[in-house]
Structures
1.
Amino acid sequence: MFTITTKKSGIKARRSLAGNIAIFGFVALLGLFSAFPFIFAVITSLKPIDELLQFPPRLIVMRPTLNNFTDLFQLASNMWVPLSRYIFNTALISIVGTVLHVLFAAMAAYPLAKHKFPGKNLLFSIIVMALMFVPQVTFIPQFVLMSEMNIVNTYAALILPWIGASLGLFLMKQFIEQLPDAILEAARIDGASEYKTFFSIIWPNSTPAIMTVVIFQFINLWNYAPKELIFGESLKVFRMALEQIVAGDPIARMGAGSAAAVILMIPPIIVFVLLQRKVVETMTFAGIK
């Protein structure tokens, strides 16, 4: 696979054509494997009802159709609340929740990474341990807290619990630690306050970590379906509306459900494709140590 050539400047190794083809084929195979769930979802959404009911399912559509999408929007048009309202709720929660989480995670990570204070290590250990808990474990305490604050069935109940998510804080802290202290010391010598140091030095130089947190947080919020926190129809999110449509008749609306699954996947994929280059860079810094 590799050949070695000798030149006046020294010995240089290069891959042969067969080696390049083998590496390209292996990478392409991994890419196809990663994209298979989305490909399968798209194929399923184009199947008529008789092909959807076939077992085992086929990977090839014999008679592709867009009727599943038209049926989905027709069913959505018969709902009490317009479909645009559900989309607006989801977009609002996803965007506002992501922006606030990134901002607060970065501001909290800065002192954890670059300052010394009593209990710092203990606090970071609690944050790391919080990563091990699934959302179902913390739901009851969150619900009790939201109820005591009297914000159940409001947008605040959907956004506030996500602002303090531990994953974003962990990634931001690990990334900010890698920034040189000399830059911060120079800013302090020039008389910059902590807020100016954060927004003029820490924030601009943490772009890879910020973009990574944006991806994770947006995907989580876009797929969030808080059935126990929201009761009003006008406050429900897009995913909840699609689940209600499909639940009316699971067999007859199977095609509409497959179309709904594709629609739900599109926005997170777009965000990931636009920002995924920053993920690798952040993971290189963050760890994970």
2.
Amino acid sequence: MTAVDGDVAVEGRGARGVSGARASLAARIAARTGGGAVRVFLLLVALFWLMPSVGLLLSSLRSPAQIAESGWWQVLGKPAQITFDNYAQLLSNGKVMGSLLTTAEITVPATVLVVVIGSLAGYAFAWLDFPGRDGWFLAVVGLLVVPVQVALIPVAKLFGAVGLFETTAGVILFHTAFGLPFAVFLLRNFFAEIPRELLEAARLDGAGEVRLFTRVVMPLGGPAIASLGIFQFLWVWNDMLVALIFADSGSPPITVALQQEVRQFGNNIDVLAPGAFLSMVVPLIVFFAFQRQFVSGVMAGAVK
């Protein structure tokens, strides 16, 4: 064996030793984080995180007098306090129930538009060549740093001039416009990681850009698209600032409707508690329904 071969062999063993050390370190970390103490800690964190939701649920199942007298944890020792009268009164409150429909009318279109337009723009920035592509993408990324508060007055004047102020369409357009920069940034980076050979093979088979986008890119980008949809849905559903300014005061979203109930009837807890819990349940259902796709999208982005 020559000196050069000896050096190469030593370097090879050294590289394998480094990789083995890294693997053993990763194994030790995984073994330690999978212990019982860590699981107990995570369980305590989960319980602490769920405590406000549980408290709101139990409060919504108590009478206003009981809520004023003691805390929600009294239900744990006195289950006889549980009653569904608050929810019956909520269902008879046309303003609050109508606000849930208005919230859905705003949230669903704003989420669908952001996902569809963001997917198309992300694919274009990732795989289509057109003049000024990099400059336009930098401009889109720059819009991420623009806070919503800066645009409230200019957009309010614009919507007032074109007749969109205090309309559902105006709120949808506002949420769509401010959700698109993040959507384009996220999906462009995800689509750019798709192997070029896969797209070239599809083009050799005769696939055009539309078919390539719908049959290849969209299925592969499903986890990222699902993550984006969940983020956008939660942001729009829980929004209050934009809805308070741009929504129709006669049919406001649920966040504004509950705020108005607080302002007009400060002790109307028998409507506020079940209404707040009902408004919180819908995003939780959406999240848990798509949690597998959400986790897949987050993990895929972390690996890439």
